[in-house]
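Appendix B, example 12.
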Amino acid sequence: MLKSQEGSALVLTIIVLVNALLIVTTITAISVIEQKVSSKTKNSTPAYQAADSAMEWALKRLQDTTIAQLDELCPGAGGFNTTTNPGRCDPGLAFPDPNTITEIYFVNNDGVVITNPTESPSAAVSMRTVGRFGDGDDRVSRALEVHLGQSGPIAWWPFMEADMTLGGGTDSAQGDEVDDITTNDNNATAFDGQWVGFGTGTEGLVPCFAPEDTCMEFDGEPEDGIFGGANDDYVQVDDSVPLYQLENGTVSMWFRASDLNHSYQGLWSKETADEHGSDLSFYVLDDNSFFGTIYGLSTPSGNDHLLVRHQKNTNNPGPNQGDSYMILSDDEIDEDDWYFMAYTFGAAGSNLYLANATDLDLAPVIQSIFEFKGTGVPGPNPVDNGLQDNFNNIQFGASATNRVFGTESPKSSPLDGYVDDIRIYNYQLNLTQIDSIYDAGPS
């Protein structure tokens, strides 16, 4: 009986000791887990602060308009990674604790991290910054992401007329508003012209580019002997706010010339005869035009081409101040064909894009560039400024090159043809972005 009691006591003691050991082990495990969680929680704050610091730094750097490509935003030792972690940008920020790491990623319209180091910053629709803090298993990562607001135009005139009977016909546009469908709502005014509905094979009717679309037709003739009167065909956009005195930007449009035997015809114009800023105009150019006669320019094939005239800012002292550059497309313009054009300008230089509506691919125009005033040397991308100090209103379907500063007359060089879907962006679009506008056609 005594041995039985001793055995029971021994078993009970062992059970108590096992339970005590389990309790101690559990408490120890919990303590270790809590210590790890506490360590990670403690590391979370500096990781977030590192991501926030990288975000503030990058947003400030993006305001520098002289930065033309993404790798210029990555001055750190890691630079712009193209191998082990493609697209990772090292900003080179210094922190008191060497275990602090910051990374920046740029994301395009498709939600994909950009891995091309020479891509323009304007290609990034959003930016992601990552902060990492700690060592080994205790390292914590925190990320922030911001939309860069570079997705849509700041002005968009699709030339849609709700009252038009689609399927054919025209309607006077005199005095009508041409709606700007962006939030800026800066509607243009048609002094005259014709709304044109899409034609479905009607003999003699010139259709707009897209089905179920309307566009604007101009007759290219002055009504009162001198072009620019209230009854003449052109559209005007007010820029007294101003909205379009841009350091960097893109202008795109669709156009169609009916008769190219008019020397040169204005498509889009924001300028004046007096030199008061960075004048910019687009023309359809005849091979025997005024520009060829005055400035000795000759079109590459002796036929009709697209011409851009962009003037360096006359109010900004520096090299080639006030110089004007002619950018002449090597591609020819044919009558009664629809064309898409886009012109980008700013710190990354100027680029002209042109494509016929039936082309399969859009590529930068091989430019013939002529510098005709001052001592500047012609070459690729000569115009590195935008529309700063350009206080002029904008004309569609005519030129304002003869307009007296401070007035709205005279207009000149009217277009005999059509325009559609004109847009303005406040940054320089890349080829992929421009190609998407071209592929969509006029809205």
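Residues 2-62 form the longest helix (61 residues). The chain is about 15% helix and 25% strand.
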